[in-house]
Design goal:
CATH topology of the largest domain: Rossmann fold
CATH class of the largest domain: Alpha Beta
Strand order of the largest sheet: 3-2-1-4-5-6
Radius of gyration: 32 Å
Low-confidence stretches: 1-30
Strand content: 15-25%
CATH superfamily of the largest domain: von Willebrand factor, type A domain
Helix content: 40-55%
CATH architecture of the largest domain: 3-Layer(aba) Sandwich
Number of helices: 9
Number of strands: 6
Largest sheet: 6 strands, mixed
């Protein structure tokens, strides 16, 4: 075989090796070491392409691992516990809150949950109290939104946290003036800082049901506020899909 053809074949082999190395990474580079050594020292024979590895051909590489970025999330649960929210309505809220919490915990590490209950006044409580309380009284929704806004402002910078407030009520509020206050709080202090604000209205024979209409009127174009009507336990899963279907 003319020398030029042999050199051409060797060059082609080298180019193929380079392509393999780029495609397959460290494993390919290690496994082709014997062939590259024989080509370099002139012992490679294209007519008899036998490759004999020696000890020095072995390489040991370790992968460099980089942790995936971790996004912290906080869920702020707010529940109306006024007199118009009966035991059945509160039970619906607790079931839905449980499944929302379960899903979000499957998506985030380091998740935190905060719990607010309100009638005419709002207060933060622990998880057990949230799921067991039987309080009653008038309804002033703005008290819950003020406390939620304060928690976000003081403890959860949006640059570091994914923030998900969920509010559940029967839609009965103290007055039109308080609803105006709620709209202002949401527009200026809550929505600009959260990933998604979810309002679930539980059907009740005692509540007016007006609040969801007010939210839909003022925030119809906002994609980070979602409302859902929950007519009974059978509607819980549909409501969860309403809230979490956006994938925010």
């Amino acid at each position: 075989m003319p020398r030029t053809i042999a050199v051409s074949r060797i060059l082609a082999t080298v180019l193929c090796l380079s392509a393999l190395q780029l495609a397959a990474g460290p494993l390919a580079r290690a496994s082709t070491a014997p062939l590259r050594r024989q080509i370099a020292v002139g012992s490679y024979d294209p007519k008899n392409p036998m490759i004999v590895p020696i000890r020095d051909d072995k390489r040991y590489r370790s992968w460099k691992t980089e942790p995936l970025p971790q996004s912290n999330a906080v869920i702020v649960y707010m529940m109306d516990v006024s007199g118009s929210m009966g035991d059945e309505q509160k039970e619906i809220v607790r079931i839905e809150s449980f499944w929302i919490d379960t899903w979000l915990r499957s998506q985030y590490q380091g998740i935190e949950s905060r719990y607010i209950i309100h009638d005419a006044m709002a207060k933060e409580v622990d998880r057990e109290t949230f799921f067991r309380t039987r309080e009653s009284g008038g309804t002033m929704i703005s008290s819950a939104y003020k406390l939620c806004a304060k928690l976000i402002e003081t403890e959860y910078p949006p640059s570091e946290w994914n923030i998900y407030p969920f509010h559940f009520s029967d839609g009965d509020n103290w007055s039109v003036d308080d609803t105006v206050t709620c709209i202002d709080l949401l527009k200026n202090h809550v929505l600009p800082k959260v990933n998604l604000f979810c309002y679930g209205q539980v059907e009740s024979p005692y509540g007016s049901g007006q609040f969801i209409k007010d939210l839909d009127e003022h925030f119809d174009a906002d994609d980070n506020l979602v409302t859902s009507e929950i007519k009974g336990k059978e509607a819980i899963m549909d409501s969860i899909r309403d809230f979490l279907g956006k994938g925010k």
